[in-house]
Amino acid sequence: MSLPTIPLEPAAVIEYLARGPGSEEQRGHEIAVRIVSLAKVARAAVPGLAQLVVAAIASSKREFVNNLAKGLVKHLLDVCRRDDEADDSGDDNALGEIGALELDDVPVGANDPLADTDRENDEVDALEESWAAEEARALSELLLCIFGRLRAESTFDVVVKRVFECTPSQAKIASLCTLLDPTGSHDVMPKPHHFDRVQAIVDDADLDDELCRPLRDLLRRRELGWPVPETRAHSPVPPLSTAGDGFFLNRLWGAQPSPSNATVTFSGLIEPDVRYAFLTTYLLNLDWVVASFAPGTRMTVARNWNREKEKAGIFQCGPNVQILHPPMGERGIFHAQLCVFSYADHVRVVISSCNLVPEEWLFVNQQIWFQDFPRLAGTARPHSKRGRLFKLHLKDMIQQCGANAEFLNDFDFSNAAGYLVGSVAGQHPAARLGGGDVAYGVWGLRNALRDLPVDQLHPSDEIVYQASSIGGLWAGWIQRFMEACSPPDQPLQESQLRIVYPTEKAANAPGVRGQEMIDLLESNWKKPGFPQHAMRQIVINDGARRHTVLHSKIMMRCARATDNGPGTQRWVYIGSHNLSQGAWGNIKRSGRGEVLELRNYELGIVLYNQPDEPRAPWEAAVPFQMPPPLYGPSDMPFISPDWTVKA
Description:
Elements: H1 10-19, H2 24-41, H3 46-58, H4 62-81, H5 84-88, H6 118-129, H7 133-147, H8 153-164, H9 170-180, H10 192-202, H11 209-223, E1 248-250, E2 263-264, H12 266-269, E3 276-281, H13 286-291, E4 298-303, E5 313-316, E6 321-325, E7 338-342, E8 346-352, H14 358-363, E9 367-374, H15 385-400, E10 419-423, E11 426-429, H16 431-434, H17 441-448, E12 462-466, H18 475-484, E13 497-500, H19 504-507, H20 522-525, E14 535-536, E15 554-558, E16 569-575, H21 581-584, E17 586-590, E18 593-598, E19 602-608
Parallel strand pairs: 1-2, 3-4, 4-6, 12-13, 13-14
Antiparallel strand pairs: 1-9, 3-7, 5-6, 7-8, 8-9, 10-19, 11-18, 12-15, 15-16, 16-19, 17-18
Helix pairs in contact: 1-2, 1-3, 2-4, 2-7, 3-7, 4-7, 7-8, 7-9, 9-11, 10-11, 17-18
């Protein structure tokens, strides 16, 4: 059997990968070189070739993905180093003696294993001395098209750091702009650090200003939130409800809003004349955030930070902007997604799954909840119980970040529609439960559900949990989690959990983007006790949303479905918590009793359905089919690749 020639049909490639001669690694290298050769002679074929390879990967074993990645990256470096004369020889089918970079030797997960080494300097020198422009440009595009789909973000770093930064040209700059523009037709989803690399190129004083103009324009469009061209501008839609009894989905770029399918944008949530804004995020594009408000708006932004390069504390960023780095442990992340906008007559509280970067608000499926609360008039009247708890938890989260929350005392939270559930990194004793007010993680979830009448529940109910990241779960932890979702005398069982997460086939389908934002490690999937039986497919209801993954986090308690359709949704949680011990906590026993150990900062809200209501007010916003279908016998979840190389 020989490798099929032009045209390369997916079925033929898959057959060759499965039964071709030689070792799997050799077949990986051979198909990589053949695809690169085709890309060189017919650059217009790059997107089709990328789709072909993705189709092959979706039907092949993960070891082949590893080998194909190595083959393409090695070939990229070989092309970058090759002399022009050697390139003209037409020897397109030989990888040659690479030697300079053996990816097998690069530790997985290292921050920058190639940085500050003689090996890196040699590679850069080789790039500057010799560069086969068209072949490498085609190869770069092919790498990004393929591995951007498969979360190999480091491949982009290799291309930018080792190609575009070395000998920039108009052709390379144009190619880079095309690949970085998320409004284009390719499937690559750029990430914030990619734009940081571009900013470094733009800031290079040695580069011609005219050469960098396209990159400056690209960064400006990002700062403005990737504006839609005027020819595709949207007509106004009726204002959204601010009562907080349901939630909304984000408006994807270029989508047409309608009264029957209400969606929100980040700028649409910001009304004029904001006096003060408090925001929290894991990822941050500060230029875009600041540009979304009126000039001079005072704001505080709490964000995740790098323990190796940064410190906890408060940092002034211009006259009106403060950046907070909350206290963090040795592990875990700051992942809460909260916005609080203070106005003259009200305050708006927003809880979502969206980081403060425009790409997440515009190109990936997200969920958003918000509610407006009026300013207290005259003598302060007492809050309702729910309102008092809402204010207490909101102030606590802001204070845990290291900010002043006293401005919230001027507003009335009596009509709060739901119960806040937060997580704060650290160890929290069970004694905090005794006060009955502020508790975190699974204990906070249990408290948020304690006011739901037991007669609205049924022992056969199920917990449906859609998350973008699934941690290392085991039976004992899941049972404690299910008990937190239940009244003490009616605990749900581990078998009643339904985990909604995409299959590998669905996530890698042609035209789907955002795979780098979903996460399940193969080691966790194979871990003893992982609830593989609980896995359910994601079937996205809205055809306009099927081209991107769900980054939302939605948990519901539902009556069991019948032949008449899905069961009643008793309550819903939406927010930033993924299904993991780091987000919800792990209960440990100590000499002083039980302790809840949390790694992350998280925040969400629980909404109750009204008694005797067959449909909850948020059901129309649930972005996936209910009840979610079982995985098929051959279905596997999308597994996060663990072979990516940091560069």
